[in-house]
Amino acid sequence: MKGIAAEVPVARVALKVSEAASRPRRWRDDASTNCYTDHFGRNGMKQVMPWLLLFVLLVSVNCLADSTDSAALFKSKCAMCHGPDGSAGTTMAKNLGIKSYKSPDVQKQSDADLKNTIVNGKGKMPSYKALTPEQVDGLVKYIRELGKK
After folding, report:
1. Alpha carbons 49 and 75: distance in angstroms, whole number
2. Whole-angstrom distance, CA of residue 96 vs CA of residue 88
3. Number of CB atoms found within 10 A of residue 101's CB
4. CB–CB of 139/111 below 8 Å?
5. pLDDT tens string for the chain (149 positions)?
6. What is the distance of C-alpha 39 from the center of its chain?
7. Which of 45, 50, 69, 146 is the Cys-Cys partner for 86 at CB 3.0 to 4.6 Å?
8. Smallest Cα–Cα separation from 68: which of 128, 148, 145, 147?
């Protein structure tokens, strides 16, 4: 009797192991977790994808708007003193001694120097610290374009 009783538990363990091997394994049975299933439900990626695409679209449109808005930003912040074409032909420019963007003195300045002047001001020029780095970069590019015209 002793030998038969000893074999029964082994047979039960072997049966349980073979049953577990034949069942399809689900993700949740593992100790690791699936972040999409845990946070967003069964169709998590399907729910997240439209929002991700919307975010990418808005960011790209915003970047394009910044590049086209450099001219408008120049007109609103700079043109009153530097003139609409950057030639410093306004009365204000003559009274303040502002140089044209077409002059070699302005064009030989580095981009970093122009950015510093825009952000911190120079002489009687006010500082524009509220501008984003992208806006300042756009203004520098626009100033370079005006210098070529």
Report:
1. 39
2. 10
3. 23
4. no
5. 555 555 555 555 555 555 555 655 555 555 555 554 555 556 666 777 777 777 776 666 555 555 568 999 999 999 999 999 999 988 888 998 899 999 999 999 999 999 999 999 998 899 999 999 999 999 999 999 988 87
6. 25
7. 146
8. 145
CA 127 to CA 130: how far, in whole Å?
A: 9
Options 3.30.420.40, 3.40.50.720, 3.90.1570.10, 1.10.760.10; CATH of 22-148: 1.10.760.10
Among residues 107, 83, 110, which one has the least CA distance to residue 94? Answer: 83
Largest CA distance in the chain: 117
Cβ–Cβ < 8 Å for 142, 74: yes
Amino acid occupying residue 26? R
Cα torsion 71, 91, 149, 133 to 10°: value is -40
The 3-state DSSP class for residue 96 equals helix
CA distance 72 to 65: 11
